Automatic annotation (TrEMBL):
Protein name: serine O-acetyltransferase
Enzyme Commission number, as recorded: 2.3.1.30
Gene Ontology biological-process entries: cysteine biosynthetic process from serine
Assigned protein family: Belongs to the transferase hexapeptide repeat family.
Length: 258
C-alpha cells in the first residue's frame, strides 16, 4: 500500500502546478463541468482546495495566524472547513463542496474524491495524531464520518452516511454505522442477493434484514396453515394417533392446532 508522504509543501511540486492539477481533475470526475470558467467561478469545493494550498504553505512557514485567518475566510466563502495543517495530496476534489470538515492532522493521498457533508474528525483532545489517514484513489460518499487516527487504504470506497472508526484495508468498500466491510479486493462479502455496489447503489443491510425477516414469517405462516388444513381434514378421526403417530400430533399442537 502506498500513501502520500506528508512532506513539506516546498519539497513537492509548485503551487501553480498543484492548482492546475486540482482544476483539471474536475473534468474527469464531474460530468456537469462544462468549461474552465465555470469550474473556476462556480465550484466552491475547488475554491476550498485552491485556498488550502496557500494556507498549508503559510502554516508550514510558521505564519500560523495568517494561515488560520485565510482558512476562516475560505470557510466563510465555501462552507468547507479545512485546517491549514491538514496534508492533502494531488488532484483532490470535493464535489458540491458543502459542509466538509477536515481536521489538522488529517492526511489525504492523491486522487481522492469527497462529496458534501464528509467529516475527517478526531476522537481525542490530546495534541497528537488524531485524524484519519486516507490512501490514494479513495472515494468518500456524502455525509460519511471518518473518525479518529485510523487508516483507509488505497482504493477504499465509503458509502454515504457511513461512520468509520476502524482501519480499512486497501480495495475495500465500507458502509453502515459503524462502518463494516462489504466488499474486498473484488470479492463480494455481502449476501449474493445484495445490490452490486456503485457509489449510488449501496446496499441497505437493515432493510435487507427486515426483508429476510418478513420472508421467514411468511414461510412460518404458510407452514402453520398446512397443519391447520391437515387438522380440519381429519381432526375428528379417533385413530389420528394410529395414522400419524404421536410426534405429528405434538407438532400440530405446537403449531396452534388441537
Amino acid at each position: 500500500m502506498m500513501f502520500f508522504s506528508p512532506s513539506r509543501p516546498s519539497v513537492a511540486s509548485g503551487l501553480w502546478q498543484d492548482w492546475r492539477d486540482d482544476v483539471a481533475c474536475v473534468f474527469a470526475r464531474d460530468p456537469a463541468a462544462r468549461g474552465l470558467p465555470e469550474v473556476l467561478l462556480a465550484y466552491p469545493g475547488v475554491h476550498a482546495v485552491l485556498l488550502h494550498r496557500v494556507t498549508n504553505r503559510l502554516w508550514h512557514a510558521d505564519w500560523k495566524l495568517t494561515a488560520r485567518l485565510l482558512a476562516a475566510f475560505a470557510r466563510w466563502l465555501t462552507n468547507v472547513d479545512i485546517h491549514p495543517g491538514a496534508t492533502i495530496g494531488k488532484r483532490f476534489f470535493i464535489d458540491h463542496g458543502a459542509g466538509v470538515v477536515i481536521g489538522e492532522t488529517a492526511e489525504i493521498g492523491h486522487d481522492v474524491t469527497m462529496y458534501h457533508g464528509v467529516t475527517l474528525g478526531g476522537t481525542t483532545w490530546n495534541k497528537e495524531k488524531r485524524h484519519p489517514t486516507l490512501g490514494n484513489n479513495v472515494l468518500i460518499g456524502a455525509g460519511a464520518k471518518i473518525l479518529g487516527a485510523i487508516t483507509l487504504g488505497d482504493n477504499v470506497r465509503v458509502g454515504a452516511n457511513s461512520v468509520v472508526i476502524k482501519d480499512v484495508p486497501p480495495c475495500c468498500t465500507v458502509i453502515g454505522i459503524p462502518g463494516r466491510i462489504i466488499q474486498q479486493k473484488g470479492l463480494k462479502i455481502q449476501d449474493p442477493r445484495g445490490i452490486d455496489l456503485d457509489h449510488h447503489l449501496v446496499p441497505d443491510p437493515v432493510g435487507k434484514a427486515l426483508s429476510c425477516l418478513v420472508d421467514r414469517l411468511d414461510e412460518l405462516e404458510s407452514n402453520q396453515k398446512r397443519f391447520v388444513v391437515a387438522e380440519e381434514t381429519c381432526g375428528s378421526c379417533e385413530a389420528e394417533g394410529v395414522c400419524h403417530g404421536e410426534d405429528v400430533v405434538m407438532l400440530k399442537q405446537a403449531a396452534g392446532g388441537k
